[in-house]
Amino acid sequence: MHVVSVINYKGGVGKTTLTANLGAELAATGRKVLLIDLDPQASLTFSLVTPEAWRKELSQDRTIKNWYDSFTSGAPADLSTFTLRPRRITQRLRACSGAGTLKLIPSHLGLINVDLELASELGGGSLRQAKIKYLRVHRRLADALAAPAFEDWDVILIDCPPNFNIVTKTAIVASDNVLIPAKADYLSTLGIDYLRRSLEELVSDYNDYAQLDSGEPSAKIDPQILGVVFTMVQYYDQRPIAALRPYMQQTRNLGVPVFDNMIRENKTYFGDGGQQGIPLVLSDQSGAAYLVSELESLVAEFEAEVGL
Amino acid sequence: MADDPSGRALARALATFLRTVTDDDVRALERGEARIVVERKATRQPRGAARRRDIDWDGLREKLVQAASREEGLALLEEFAPLRDQLKELARRLDLPTPKSDNVERLRDRIVDTTIGYRLRSNAIRSSDSNPS
Q1: DSSP class of residue A233?
Q2: Which pLDDT score, from 0 to 100, does residue B2 have?
Q3: What is the reported pLDDT for B43?
């Protein structure tokens, strides 16, 4: 099982587009894929499930928020019971020969309050108590994914919110890798550096706390940056336009892995943001064939990097 | 000297000079009342061409990517690529787009930012000193 968090401080860089298409194509090629939507905006959820169905069938008690809340009530729920098969993409996958599985743990707009709840669990009378609580809170998602029910999943993709609050940190702690979608512009490249720094600090703090003198030993974490996937890329003469290339090269020069394959800018086909519930990579629109091919290449590169 | 172009030029210059020297000049020189002086002519350099020289583009690029500050980078550009078309050529070699309207100052800023500035920004963001908490 590979757990990959998809994250960037900056919103609107194509995180959900990347996560949805990556998950869909992996499932279409036979993998068992779980998508976890940790963003209170619930973009990934609404790209696979209609808001009406979400409200009617999920919002009450079947979202990731409900799972986090169950700890507050003192009766932690089993995370595997929150997975669901989005109807429309499941039907499309059934038409693909050799397809695997794609499931989703949906988000909730109220997830934003979970950070406050988790923060209230931190702290303690002694340094040791504070460390134990820190580990317990930050390992919440990792411990849940370590359950036998998740052993069979090939890939778990976590769509993280555009911040580095506690909910996001629980995703990072649970992850083997971090995937960073980014636009090739000045502010996005700054965001990559912020993210790298935040990751380094989290890993350092966590691993420092994990070294307890006695009591419960806790394994260290070592999530690796899988790479940056540049998104919304404009092309000219079969390569990114000149205005974007310096930022791409600067990212490489700073030692950050950069995927060779990128996501092309196309408002026509990416613009509806999953309104139809089917990520573009599974589209049968003839006009999108070249985009589908590029997405397939990106996924193949992802598989090679992750080691699937 | 027959094979030495600069030597032939010097000989011509001396011959020209000697044609202008009179007998009185020679007697003044002998008495120490006159001396021979080399005077440089103030020439207006042709536009661009005289200041153009072969630039080691790879070497300049290497110096820039090793530079530790923007000031160092600007100094390098002023020394090794002072002209606008040289800066444009360097930008082209760095795969850096530059609008036609960019003047020398703006070109320098862009080049320095793309070779040095981004590293400084990255270091500033990633250093622990910039942590507000």
Answers
A1: B
A2: 53
A3: 57
Backbone angles phi, psi at A43, to 5 degrees: -65, -45
Contacts of B94 in chain A (CB under 8 A): 246
Compute the mean pLDDT over every residue in chain A, rounded to the nearest whole number: 92
Q: What is the ipTM of this complex?
A: 0.84
Work out the pLDDT band at B35, boundaries 50, 70, 90: confident
B25 to B11, B18, B28, B30, B31: CA distances (angstroms): 20, 10, 5, 9, 10
Tell whether B114 is within 8 A of chain A (Cβ): yes
Confidence class for position B14, pLDDT limits 50, 70, 90? confident
- CA–CA distance, A18 with A105 (Å, rounded to integer): 17
Q: Measured between CA atoms, how close is A131 to chain B, in angstroms? A: 18
Q: How far is B126 from chain A (nearest CA, A)?
A: 5
The pTM score is: 0.84
Nearest by CB: B121 against A190, A245, A253: A190
Residue A87's pLDDT is: 93
Q: Under an 8 A CB cutoff, do A250 and B114 touch?
A: yes
What does the block give as tokens for A291?
């985009």
Please, are residues A47 and A279 in contact by the beta-carbon 8 Å criterion? yes
**Separation in Å, CA A5 to CA A51, A156, A229, A274:** 24, 8, 13, 20
Q: Do B125 and A197 touch (CB under 8 A)?
A: yes
Q: How far apart are the first and last CA of chain A?
A: 9
User: A196 to chain B, minimum CA–CA distance in Å?
Assistant: 7
Among candidate residues A253, A203, A206, the one with its CA nearest the CA of residue A228? A253
Beta-carbon separation of A242 and B119 below 8 A = no
CB of A193 within 8 Å of a chain B CB? The answer is yes
